[in-house]
Prior knowledge:
Blueprint: H1 2-21, H2 23-31, H3 35-47, E1 52-53, E2 59-60, H4 62-79, H5 83-93, H6 96-101, H7 106-116, H8 118-134, H9 145-171, H10 180-193, H11 205-212, H12 221-228, H13 233-267
Antiparallel strand pairs: 1-2
Amino acid sequence: MFRTLRAMPTILRVGLAEAIAYRAEMFVWVLSTTMPMIMMMLWTAVAQFAPVVASNGRQYGTPGFVAYFLAVFIVRQLVSSWAAWEINFEVRQGTLAMRLLRPIHPIVSYAAGNVAAMPMRFVIVIPIVIIVFAAGVQDHFPHDVTTWACWAVSMLLGWLVTFLANVAIGALSLFMEQSIKVMDVWLAAFFVFSGYLFPPDLFPGWLKVVADWLPFRYQLGVPVELLTTGHALDETLNLLARQAGWVAAMGVLCVSLWSVGVRRFQAFGG
């Protein structure tokens, strides 16, 4: 642990340097996450005729949809991870063996690389925050410190769920030719159930119950809800506890798959 902490500043500097060096790739990745803006235009066009009423009675008008999808875009930038693609590439190329020789655990190294790109993502988020105020929808965002503090915790937990799920799916490439197709299925379910394409409140009651038991809402939906909808403190704490539960579950799955997969990788001479 001490060795990892001592090496962390260097790992973060290297990760930031890579993010800056591949800024064009980062820009392309950002363009691939603009779907919330497209959905915002579609839903605001619908709301111009009449507010959209959710199953819980909440009404979404044009300002509500603008605030919601701007929040989705912001949260999506900050809780994203690409560890699954990294692991698949390194397993196929055999370069994972070099990472295993380093004194830092590979999962910690992947996490540090993702975190190091945060400054570049903040550069993307700041203009969106300016748009929020220019669009006059700041009233839809929290005004108390407690909610903002809970949102910050929720963002961390959401990122952990996303990152650990990425590592778990990436670790499957140690058992099969590649696991990118598994990641594609995960992303398809994420887009539907996380609140990425539309507010989960718009689900029918039974489908919303199903979404509550899946991990996708706890990747993105909960931080977005705290940022735009707001909840009573007890409900907020309940949601944070559920997020923490998914972090623990994904952590166990991730470490288990990685430990068994790496032994298999080494046994075959990787």
